[in-house]
Structure formats: structure tokens, C-alpha cells
Amino acid sequence: MTFQEKRELARSFIKCYLAAREGLTRLGILRSERTLQADYAEWLVAGLLGLELASSGTQRGWDAIDPQGKTYQIKSRIVGNLDKNTSFDITTIDRPFDYLIGVFFSPELELLGVIRVPYDVVRELGSQNRNSFRFRWNKRIANDERIEKIVWPPESMD
Q: What is the pTM of this model?
């Protein structure tokens, strides 16, 4: 394939991509210029849990609020499966929220699992690094009874 053919093909894919972004924005899924993964996770969790998303897609500290006023920080990761170690990074743990929601997606953005972790458990089990606070996900953490598995297949990590 020549460069010109590749360029024409790329332009065609870009048009499809931009049309898809516009459609996802109209549906209320894309709310910022962040990745589809982040905005989709927030939209999905809000729908699953009956939360109201923050008016700003880039608000600091929390992403959604429930009818009782509890705040939720929503983070997502793409993993091969739920047995993989990963981490949910939070810019700063000093802006308290009530719950961390961890969303696990497959590489195709299929929902694999959703966890809810109280703020005090995030602080206890997580760790500060130079640039952010990290809540590590691994087998030990997965079995902590304080972590609620909202969406979870029975055969994973348990």
C-alpha cells in the first residue's frame, strides 16, 4: 500500500472516529477530552448505581454523588482478566471522597467488574508515591471483606 493510499484510509478512519465521538457525546457518555475509557466508566457507574455525575467532567476530588450526598471517586483500568494485579491512581488522597469505585474493563471495553471501597480502606491499603496515591489491586486486597464487589463473576480471584 502506498503512503497516499494509507493516508486516504487513515482519513476515512478518522472521520469514523470523530463521528463516533460526536455520537457518544450526544449520549452523554463523553463529557471531556479525556479518554473514552475514563468517561465511559463514570457514565456506566452513574447508571448502575443511580449516581449524579459532577457537573464538570474534570472536577477534582470526586466524580459523582448519590442521593444521600455520599461522594464517589471513579477510576478504571483495562486488564486481561480480573486476576491481574493493577492499580487505581488518585491525584491526591487529601481531597476526601466517601468511596472509590474501581471499574475493570477488558481491552475491548467490556465490563469485567466493579468494586466499591470506603475512603478509610483506600487510605489504609493504598500508598503514596511521588506523583499520586496508588490503590493497588492484587489477590490479597481482592479478598478484603471491606471491599464490596458490585459487579463480579463468581470464579475470579475469590
A: 0.85
- Residues 135, 86, single domain; the answer is yes
Per DSSP (E only), the strands in 31-70 are 52-53, 64-65
Residue 24 is assigned to a structural domain of this protein: yes
Measured on CA atoms in the order 63, 66, 72, 75, is the torsion positive or negative?
negative
pLDDT in tens, the chain (158 residues): 897 898 899 889 989 988 999 999 999 999 887 788 999 999 999 999 999 999 876 667 899 999 999 999 999 999 999 989 999 999 888 888 999 999 999 999 999 999 999 999 999 999 998 888 999 999 999 999 999 999 998 755 44
Q: Which domain holds residue 17?
A: 1-30
Same domain flag for 125 and 97: yes
